[in-house]
Amino acid sequence: MISKKMETAINEQINKELYSEYLYLSMQAFFAAQNLDGFANWMNVQCQEEHFHSMKFFTYLIDRGGKVELQAIAQPEVNFENPLNAFTAVLKHEQFVTQSINNLMDLAIQEKDFATKGLLDWYVNEQVEEEASAEKIVRRLHFIGNDPQAILALDSELGKRVFTPPVVTQ
Length: 170
Hints:
Radius of gyration: 17 Å
Structural class: mainly alpha
CATH superfamily: Ferritin, core subunit, four-helix bundle
Largest sheet: none
Distance between the termini: 16 Å
Number of helices: 5
Shape: elongated
Number of domains: 1
Mean pLDDT: 96
Helix content: over 70%
CATH topology: Ferritin
Number of strands: 0
C-alpha cells in the first residue's frame, strides 16, 4: 500500500506529465502551422513519450493500491515565435520535470518507499535523456541562427524521429 503523501505527489506528477503532453501538442500545432513538418513530428513523438510517462505513473499508482485523481490541465503557451524559442522552452520545461522527479525521489527515500524509488530510478535516467536531447537541438539552433536552408535541413532530420515505447519492468 502506498502512503497518502506519496499518492498525492504521484497524482501531481501525473498532472505534470499530462501537461507536458499538452505543451508538446501545442508546439506540434505551432510547427505544423509553419509547414515545419519535421519539427512538428519531433513534438508529436514527444507527446507520445509524455503520455507513456503519465500512464506509467497512473498504472503504478493503481498497482500500489492508490487512487488516481486527475486534475485540471493548465493551458499551455501557443505562440513560440521560432524554433529556437520553442526548443528553449522545451529544455526549460524538461529541467522543471527533472526537478519534480528529484523531489519525488527525495520523498520516496524519506518514506523508505523502495518500490516507488525503483520506479523513479527509471524516470531519473529518462530525464537525463530528455534534457540532453532538447539541449542538443537548442545548441544546433543557436549555431544555425536564421539560416533557412539549415533550418529546413534540421526539419528534415527531426522528421525521422519515431516513438518506440520503452520496454520496462515496472
